[in-house]
Specification:
There is one protein chain. By secondary structure, this protein is an alpha/beta fold. Helix content is 38%, strand content 17%. The chain is built from 12 helices and 15 strands. The strands form 3 sheets. The protein has a 7-stranded parallel β-sheet with strand order 5-2-1-6-7-8-9, sandwiched between helices.
Length: 362
């Protein structure tokens, strides 16, 4: 018999990012299945999530805290259907409602969730979406995998990484889905001229430095190629011409995917990587490094692989599709066909089954 469960997720922040978007997908899906779902985030930010060190990180923390108080958001509206969230001063038992399952969603939140004492039968889990070493704290991140929490990961490489470090078994590996009802091809996909789309981010791990070098060379060799970037930060400085969309709404992102016929995914490391599957669902041929989701969804016929950290390799892989319309068409159609197996509905059903089983055996 299905149990009606109260589940709470702890976010490290509510800024635009894929990790938050994934958590909200599960929240909405579980809510539809009858769960009572709450989402918390701290008004006092985690100092460890600042790329500034020393005294300046404390000043950053104060600045963000003031910003959070001023905006005091109780609903997330960006890039998704609205979802209510609960701002609290800190992630402490005092500020949280009673729940059956409490889920940490980033390494700093895992320590807060682990230290919350509960006399009830509350289950604690740790939803790990990446090896989060962007700002350092490697030892603390590794230690977090040994906390008394049920470990959940999103990809095979991450499962191996976490199990290797913690010497524990991951209790669930669950792959991200794609909103196939929203992300879909246009009525008639255009393959001329070649058009390349890249989500630009200024984190080194995203590999955009090499991507920009490769795109500059593509534009110099093939001036007719249309290059478009979108992202949540300011556009990069570059010597070649491109279109840039900052903070685009979801409908605009869909249009960008639909208008492009090549999507570039140059990451140096990902837990999963949402943009590549979304582009595939919109029938884009893919040039990608073999990280994150690519080891699962790449089948040799739907992606041209490029080497990590190599602008030259990215250029050569792009060149294959830019100069060959037949390959652009074949790879894009296979990308669309193969991604149909990755829906959010299937992922949510798997997560639900896991949670129901977890409470049965707790």
């Amino acid at each position: 018999m299905r149990k009606k469960l109260n589940i709470a997720f702890v976010l490290p922040f509510i800024d635009n990012c894929g990790g938050v978007a994934v958590v909200l997908e599960y929240c909405r899906g579980l809510q539809k299945l009858g769960y009572t779902v709450e989402v918390y985030y701290p008004l006092i930010p985690y100092k460890e999530l600042s790329n500034i060190k020393g005294l300046s990180s404390t000043l950053w923390q104060i600045k963000v805290f003031i910003k959070n108080i001023i905006r005091y958001k109780t609903q997330i509206n960006w890039f998704t259907s609205p979802f209510k969230v609960k701002p609290v001063i800190l992630i402490r038992k005092l500020f949280l409602s009673k729940c059956d399952i409490l889920v940490a969603t980033a390494w700093p939140t895992s320590y807060d969730v682990a230290r919350i004492n509960s006399n009830s039968n509350m289950i604690k889990a740790y939803f790990i979406q990446g090896y989060e070493t962007w700002y350092g704290f490697v030892d603390k991140i590794k230690e977090s995998y040994s906390l008394p929490l049920n470990l959940i990961t999103i990809s095979p490489w991450l499962t191996k990484k976490v199990e290797s470090i913690s010497k524990r078994n991951v209790s669930l590996e669950i792959h991200n889905g794609v909103d196939l009802k929203f992300f879909k091809p246009p009525a008639a996909k255009r393959y001329d001229p070649p058009s390349i789309l890249l989500m630009y981010q200024d984190l080194d791990v995203k590999g955009c430095a090499e991507a920009l070098q490769a795109l500059s060379k593509i534009k110099a060799s093939f001036p007719h190629v249309v290059i478009t970037l979108f992202g949540f930060c300011d556009p990069p400085k570059s010597t070649f011409s491109f279109n840039y969309y900052k903070n685009p709404p979801k409908k605009t992102v869909l249009k960008l995917y639909q208008d492009a016929n090549i999507f570039l995914f140059p990451s140096r490391g990902e837990g999963w990587g949402l943009t590549a599957p979304e582009a595939m669902a919109c029938q884009c041929a893919l040039v990608a490094t073999n990280v994150g989701c690519m080891e699962i969804i790449g089948n040799g016929k739907n992606v041209v692989h490029a080497e990590i950290n190599s602008a030259e390799s990215i250029y050569r892989s792009l060149e294959i599709l830019v100069t060959n319309k037949e390959k652009r068409v074949l790879y894009s159609k296979e990308a669309y066909r193969s991604i149909q197996n990755f829906s959010w509905e299937l992922s949510i059903k798997k997560f639900d089954a896991y949670l129901q089983n977890l409470t049965d055996h707790h």
